[in-house]
Fold this sequence. Notes:
The chain has strands at about 1-5, 10-15, 20-25, 35-40, 45-50, 60, 70-75, 80-85, 90-100, 115, 120-124.
Amino acid sequence: QVQLVESGGRLVQAGGSLRLSCAVSGRTFSSFGVGWFRQAPGKEREFVAGIKWNGGSTYYADSVKGRFTISRDNAKRTVYLQMNSLKPEDTAVYYCAADQGLGGRLMERRPGYWGQGTQVTVSS
């Protein structure tokens, strides 16, 4: 069983930066991957970024490429999402997600593990 706990969401002005954290506990296997999804009001949940726990391969949605960076600290068992040049359309609940068999390619199917979500609000 894997547990995920997000933190770091808050209100920020457009153009600003924010870093989300996801603490990972539980057993992980060789193809374990962690990532971020987001869901804005009235919209479907969408993939944002993913990273493979072993090896660090990263994947991004086109909408955040060049602005967001996903990274991990294996010693701290924490995954980060650095968000720069934030836009009002980035406003959403951000969820940390993980899966044992996808590496970082969490866009391929619904991941098996989810955190509780953290609210990010970008004001214009």
